[in-house]
Amino acid sequence: MGSGKKEANRKVRQGKTGDGMANVKMKGENFYRDQKKVKTLNMFSKGKARRNAAGDITQAAIYQSKETPNARIEPNRKWFTNTRVIAQDSLTSFREAVEKNQSDPYSFLLKQNKLPMSLIRDNTKNGVKQHEAKIAVEQRPFQDTFGPKAQRKRVKLDVSSLQDLAGHSEKMHDQYLDRREQAQLLSGNAAQAEASGDGWADVDDGNSAAAREPIFSKGQSKRIYNELYKVIDSSDVIIHVLDARDPEGTRCRSIEKYIQEEAPHKNVLFVLNKCDLVPTNIAAQWVRTLSKERPTLAFHASINNSYGKGSLIQVLRQFRSLHSNRKQISVGIIGYPNTGKSSIINTLRKKKVCTVAPIPGETKVWQYVTLMKSIYLIDCPGVVPPNQNDTDADILLRGVVRIENVQNPEQYVAAALQKCQKKHILRTYELKEYADHIDLLEQLARKSGKLMKGGEADVDGVAKSVLNDFLRGKIPWFVPPKDWTPKDKRGKSAAEGAEEEGGRTGDLDRLNKIGMQDLRAKKRKRDEADVEGEDDNAGQKDHAAAEEDEDDEDEFQSFSVDDGEEEGVEVSSDQEDEDDDA
């Protein structure tokens, strides 16, 4: 022991602290190859398995082995229990609470990922009856029932005789008539069917008596719908842009139904664009009407003089707070062509980031635009859901097709004149009187000098100009709501109507219940003062017996820029820069 300690101390004094392996060389190491080179060559040679001529492995690689390692799982009862458990009573009460608040468009369910949504949103339809035909075809294919490879001699039917088959057919026919009568009552066409005296007069078999021009099928192609579905799938919030002059005509109800059934977790918002082209009380009434279904805002798209921009940004920020578990949200903008989807994006960005034009079909593909650090906008091409009840005139007057490509445009001028008042036509074109739409076109052709050979009026060219003026807002027109009466224009103020309908004029003011978060925008302080000022002006005009032209101007008084923006809601450029830098 002592000699060992002395030897160790001697090595420390002499600085020989190594383990004695300094002179030990690695196999293959020599004067020409150092240890590093040998390791590299071994990696190349031993990194793959050796095989014989038949391709079988004779020597496995270093990392290969036929022996499985021993693994052991921690013995814990949690492996065999549910991750989250809820009692049936709690599930029933929660389902009732969700169904009660589901009809409220201003309430949203939080933390859906932690809830059994498949149990809460249980499908009310019977899946077996709904897919009965599909199940029957899968269980009994055609080739196994008929043909030389049939596996049974007789077809299985629900009836045993021809009398039973006839009775079953009559029963199915009666059920069809009952469903059809119920559908007529719900759609309001029962009076027309009764007046015609024929119950089959209004049956739509999908066939048209006249050929339709291919241009009226714009916005229905597979490419457009592929772009639409990409936008819907990529969006957390969907803005449905409507034309304030005809909101019901520019609604895509089939797309709303698709979102409601396939993606109920996505938030949908209505935006009434072009509200400067309709009277103030009409726009407010449409906002109150549509607010019963979805959150609705009035908007005027303009880079310099906009309306509703601050309210829309405020609502988008509140939607962002709903998705607090994400770093950013995407907002898809969908709707009919030429409703101003790209113009809304340019208005929110205060510069031209999307190509816009007063003609439909300018946007061809979807486009991502950054609004701020946590909110992205997605521009979508305009889509036109097919509807058998829409005529060619209805499609054209919604701005879906380009007027210059329509054949015989004078045939649609009569439908356009029915939507606007005659005095507005006379005042717009400075005419005294006209008999019908042909007389109007001839007078305008002679007044503007659009004459053909022999002094004949160029009816087609003038008709295109009139239709363009109709679509681009030069001729005032609008489609009033169903519950709107002309007495509301003078006898009732917008504030009183708002109180009767619940006080919604574009603001989100309903409280949240049972785990829901409300989206409430601040009440615009200047609305009541502006409405009172308009009522005072209207009263003075009534007492002074103003002229008809002055009444027309007051009737089509649109949203002004100064009246619409709320102090504290409008986002200044400095504040937007701070959000971008944040």
TrEMBL record:
Residues 1-28, 481-582 are annotated as: Disordered. Keywords: GTP-binding, Hydrolase, Nucleotide-binding, Nucleus. SUPFAM superfamilies: P-loop containing nucleoside triphosphate hydrolases. One of its GO terms (cellular component) is nucleolus. Residues 547-582 have a biased composition (Acidic residues). It comes from the Eukaryota. It holds the Pfam family NGP1NT. One of its GO terms (molecular function) is GTP binding. InterPro entries: G_CP_dom, GNL2_CP_dom, GTP-bd, GTP-bd_ortho_bundle_sf, NOG2_N_dom, P-loop_NTPase, TRAFAC_YlqF/YawG_RiboMat. It is found in: Nucleus, Nucleolus. Signal peptide: none annotated. Residues 1-10, 484-493, 501-512 have a biased composition (Basic and acidic residues). Residues 225-386 form the CP-type G domain. Belongs to the TRAFAC class YlqF/YawG GTPase family. RsgA subfamily. GTPase involved in pre-60S ribosomal subunit maturation. This is Nuclear/nucleolar GTPase 2. The lineage of its organism: Eukaryota, Viridiplantae, Streptophyta, Embryophyta, Tracheophyta.
